[in-house]
Amino acid sequence: MAIEYRITLDDNHEFSYRIELDRVYDAAQAQAAPSWTRLDCQQCSNCPLSRNDFSHCPAAVDLHRVIEDFQGLPAFKKAMVWVRTPEREYTKQVGLEEGLRALLGVIMATSACPVLGKLKPMAQNHLPFANNQEFILRAVSLYLARQYFNFREGRLADWELKGLVRMFQQLQLVNQA
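Below the sequence we write its predicted structure tokens.
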């Protein structure tokens, strides 16, 4: 399953990306990535990955092409962004920042990063251009659905959302890094 993005700035700037949702860490691809993607380059304070097992940050390896493509372009520049998920297509004229936020979000949530990977269920039902209210609604809904199934299967359910708060605290540390 994949999500496709096409970002068009003008006749000379069109970028296309295909994000496979079920990808794993590729050591060969990591070795070819820029040095700033190395795990020892500003590793997140809460990163559980060992440098013995991962030479590079999985999220940075997945992100580097997009970052390099848009380096130096103004965030406020208008772009036409087209997104195809397995269920539907979206098109919206937005500032480049908003289009990239959606693209980078789905790339990070589906990377092999164990912290960002907690968002993978949201990526599987990707909603590009979601505002904060929509993001919170989706995150809480998915979390509560998981708690319901935990309860039904005889496991502990976190109805107070403490685990969701902890998860977002961990995600905030990654965002800061």
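The chain has a mean pLDDT of 94.
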